[in-house]
Amino acid sequence: MIKLIVNGETHSVDVEPEMPLLWVLRDHLGLPGTKYGCGISQCGACTVHLDGEAVRSCTLPVSAAQGKRITTIEGLSRDGLHPVQKAWIEHEVPQCGYCQTGMIMTATALLERNPHPNDDQIDQAMTNLCRCGTYARVRKAIHALAEAGAVTPRKS
Amino acid sequence: MTTAVSRREFLKVSAAASGAFVLEFWFPAGSSAAGSADTATEVNAWMVIHPDDRVVIRIARSEMGQGSFTALAQLVAEELDCDWGKVSGEFASPNEHFRRNRIWGSMLTGGSRGIRTSQDYLRKAGASARMMLVMAAATRWGVPPSECTVQAGVITHRPSGRRLRYGEVAAAAALLPAPAEVPLKDPRDWKIAGKPVHRLDIPDKVLGKPVFGVDVSLPGMLHAAIAQCPVFGGKVAHVDASLAQSLRGVKQVVRADDFVAVVADSWWRANEAVKALKIRWDEGGNGHVDNAGIAAMLREGLEAKDLPQARKVGEVGSALAGAAKVLQAEYHSPYINHATLEPQTCTAWFRPDGFLEIWTSTQDGEASMQAAASASGLPLEKIEVHKMMLGGGFGRRGGPQDFVRQGIVIARAVPGTPVKLMWSRSEDMQHGFYRPASLVSMKAGLDAQGRLVAWHTRVACPSILQVLRPQLLAKGGIDFTAVRSFDDMPYEVPHQQVDYARRNGHVPVGFWRAPGQQNAFYRECFMDELAEAAGQDPVVFRQSLLAPDNKERRVLEAVVHAAGWGQPAAAGVFRGVALAAGFGSYTAMVAEVSVSPKGELKVHRIVVAIDSGYVVNPDTCRAQAESNVLFGLGSVLYQENNLKNGRIVETNFNNFRLPQISEMPKVETLLVPSGGFWGGHGEPAILPLAPAICNAVHAATGKRIRSLPLKHHDLRPA
Ligand code: FES
Ligand code: FES
Fold it and tell me: Which of B439, B437, B454, B530 is nearest to B492 (CA)?
C-alpha cells in the first residue's frame, strides 16, 4: 500500500511502486484533469505540484511522491476558481484545452515562486508544449496576474 | 416537434440501462442534462428552452479548440434574441440525428467549414423559434404579433406593456407550425454574433473537468493499450502473449488482423503489458521503403509523360518558348503527423441489452456512427456516439475513424464491459494520416517588360482523397487538395498549365490542417523568385498581377500597410510577404525574421490580414490566427516524419519537436471582413506562413529555401 496526500486528502493505493504518479491519479484516484501527452517529460500536460513545485507526473514513480503534498488541477483551489484559472478565462487562453491544466499548474508554481516574472523567466519556466498555439495568451495572462499581484507568493 | 422529445426519452433509456451512470460525461459545459427534471421544451431541433429561461443550443459540429461550439451558438442566439448569459451548449446526439433523418445537417468538422456551411440554417432556426415564441405570446394575449417586440428573451406587447419571458411560452411555441418565411437580420445589427463573447467551453477546461475523450470513466471500465503493425499495411503474423498475460492487472490480450491490444485495469498496466508482447509482423512487402524510396516515387511521377491536367489555359509550351526570361525551380515537403496533444482514443461498450455506446474525440459524429456500424455489424439505431471535446483535431479525427474501429474490436472481446482505448504517443506518432510529402516543379516565363506570361506546374503528391474520399477524385484521378493554389491561382497569367502525378505509396496521408498548403509555400516563394528576376518589389510584382477588386489584393494591401512594408524594419530584421486563398477566406501575411551570424533563425513578428466575409467571434478568429502561426511554425522550422524500413522513424516529442513559448512570434491579426460571402478561420492563416517566413529568410540571407523544414538548411549569411 502506498500512502498519498492528494489535494489535502490521504489515500492508500495498492499499486506498483514504479507506476508513474500520473496513472495513479488518472486511473486509480479518478482525477483525470492531469493529462498524458508524451510519457517522457517532454510536454508538461501531466504537471502537478509536489510540495508546491511543478513536476511532471508521467515519469515520477508513485513511490517518490509518498509523504509529499500532491496538488492536481482539481485541488488547485478549495473555493471556486484560483486566480490563475480566472485569468485563463478572462484572457481566453485555452483552445482545445488539453495542455492547459498542465500549463495552469506550471504557471501557478512559477508565480508562487516569482510573483513578477519577466519574459525570459516565463520562457524558462513555461516549457509546456501546446499544439494549438496558445502561448501568446499564456504570456499575457501571466503578466496580468503579476501586475495585479493576484497570486500569493509561497513562503519557503 | 413538440415537447421534451425523443432525446430526453433516449436519455432516460440509456440512464436506466446503465445504472449508476455519470451523466455529466455526456455533455459539456452546463448542459441540459444536469437538473433537467423540469419541463424543458425543444422549440426546434436546435434549442431547448427551460422554464427559467435557460437556453440550451445543440451543436452538431465538433469542438477541437477552434471555438465553433461558442460561435455556432452565437449565430442561433443572435436570431433567437435570447439572453446570452443564459445560453449553454450541448452536442447534438448522432444517434438521434440519424433517427430524425439527419436533422442537424452535417456533423463533419473540417475544411474550416463549421460556421460557413451551417450559418444559414442555424440563423434561420434561431429566427424561426423567435417568431414562434412571439406568436405564442401574442396568442395568449389575443393581440397581433406585429405589436410585440423581443429583447434578451423577454417579449413585450408594446401598446399594453405586458411581458412574457421565453421560458413561459416555450411549451406553447413548440406546438405552433414553423413559419414559412424567415427573414434574417442584417449582420450590421448583430448584438451577440460578431462580438467577442467568452467561450462557453473554457470554464470546464481550466477546471480540469472530464471533457475529453481520454477522460471518460464508466463503472467497471477497463483500459486498453495497443501495438499496431509498424509497417503500414502489414499484419500480425504471430503473438507470444505469455509474459504480458502474467502481468498485474491484465485481463485480456486481443489479437486483431493488424494490431494487438491489451486490456487491463489501468492504462499504464495495459501499456506495460503491450511492451511485454512478443509480436512477429508480416510486413506485407513494404518493409524496405525508406526516404529514398519515397523520393524516387515522387521523382518518377514528376517526370512521367501524359499526366492528367488539373488546369489548362492558353498554351504554356509556346508561351514559354517565346518568353524573354524563363525560370524553373523544384520544391519539396516531407510527411508530417498531426500530433494532436490528446492521442487517439475511443471508449466502446457493448451493453447487455444489445446497444453499443461509443465515447470518442471525433471530428465527425456521423462518420464515427458509420464506422461503428460497419465494425460492429449493428444498425445505426442501436449505436450512440457521444462526442467528447477533442484534445486537438487538425484533420486527424475526421476521415480516418481507425480508432473507433479498433475500440469496437477490442470492446467486443469483453462484452458487457466498457473499454477505453488510448494510443501511446509513439503509436500516435507512427500511425498517422500524414500531411503528404510532395515534389513540385514550376516553370514560368516573363516577357521583356517583366510581366508574367506563362506558368507551368507539375505536382507529384500522394492523394488524400484516394485514401479517405475516393469518390471525390475528379476526372483523370485529380485530387483537388493536391493542386490547389495552382489550379485557382489569383494572378492574371495568360498561359497556365497544372499537371498532377498521383503517387501514393504505402504511407497513409490525410487532411492535415489546410490540406494542400504546401502548394502555397511553393507558389508564393516562386513568386518572389519571379519578382526578383523581373527586378520588382515582391508586393508591387504581385499587385501588378491582381485585378483592382481582387480580394487577395485587398488583404495584401491591408497587411503591407499594417506591417510597414517599404519602411525600414528594426536593425537586422527582414521581411517577407505571401498571400493565399482557401477555405472560403483570403489571407495575406508579412513575416519579420532575423538570422544570427551562426545561422539561427528567429521569427519576431507575423502580421496577417484575413477576409472571411463575416466574423462571428472576433476573439476566436484571432486565436485561430495565432494557432495557425504556431502550428505552421513547427512545420517550417523542424517537423518531418522520416521513413526507414517501411516505418516512421520519429516516436515522440523528443524527435518530433513542437515549438515552445519562447519561439512564439508576436502575431497581429487584421480581420477585414468585406461581406457578401462566408469564409472559414480554422486553416486560412496557415497558408501564407511558410512562404512569408522563407521569403523573409531570403531577404535576410540571400538564400532561396525550396524545401522544408528549415533545420536542414545552413542559414549562415553567404
Ligand atoms: S505526459 Fe508528462 S511531460 Fe508529457
Ligand atoms: S490548447 Fe490545445 S494543446 Fe494547448
Answer: B454
Q: State the average pLDDT for chain B.
A: 93
Which residue's entry shows cell 504471430?
Answer: B238
Alpha-carbon span B82 to B394, nearest angstrom = 33
> With bands split at pLDDT 50, 70 and 90, how would you rate the model's confidence at B38?
low
In a domain, B246, yes or no: yes
Establish if B427 belongs to a structural domain.
no
With 0-12 CB in 10 A as exposed, 13-18 as middle and 19+ as buried, what is A134? buried
Residues of B in contact with A15 (CB under 8 A): 266
- C-alpha A58 to ligand 1 mean position (Å): 5
Q: What is the pLDDT of residue B17?
A: 33
Of B4 and B198, the one with more pLDDT: B198
Same domain, B237 and B301: no
Q: Look at residue A125 in the predicted model and tell me its pLDDT.
A: 98
Q: In the prediction, which pLDDT does A156 show?
A: 57
Q: What is the pLDDT of residue B503?
A: 97
**Residue ranges of chain A whose pLDDT lies below 70:** 156
Topology at the third CATH level for domain A2-76: Ubiquitin-like (UB roll) (3.10.20)
Strand, helix or coil for residue B129: helix
Indicate the fold that domain A83-148 takes in CATH: DNA polymerase; domain 1 (1.10.150)
At B645, phi and psi to the nearest 5? 50, 40
Same domain, B369 and B326: no
Looking at residue B104, what is its pLDDT?
93
Q: Identify whether B429 is part of a domain.
A: no
Which chain B residues have a beta carbon less than 8 Å from that of A35? 212, 214, 341-342, 391
How close B316 gets to chain A, by Cα (Å)?
42
Could you tell me if the CB of B202 is within 6 A of ligand 2? no
B132 and B227, same domain (yes or no): no
Helix (H, G, I), strand (E, B) or coil at B503: coil
Residue B279 scores a pLDDT above 70: yes
Mutation probe of ligand 2 site: the residue of B204, B211, B340, B341 with most atoms within 8 A of C-beta? B341
Q: Are B571 and B515 in contact (CB under 8 A)?
A: no
Residue B479 lies in a domain: yes
Nearest to A38 among B210, B392, B653 (CB): B653
Cβ of A98 closer than 6 Å to ligand 1, yes or no, is no
Q: What is the pTM of this model?
A: 0.94
- Give the separation between CA B298 and CA B286, rounded to whole angstroms: 16
DSSP, collapsed to helix, strand or coil, labels residue B123 as helix
Task: Tell me, yes or no, if B151 comes closer than 8 A to chain A by beta carbon.
Answer: no
Per-residue pLDDT, A80? 85
For residue B620, give the H/E element and its range: helix B618-637
- Measured between beta carbons, which residues in chain A are less than 8 angstroms from residue B206? 81, 85, 88-89, 93-94, 97, 100-101, 104
Whether ligand 2 lies within 6 angstroms of the CB of A100 is answered as: yes
pLDDT at B423 over 50: yes
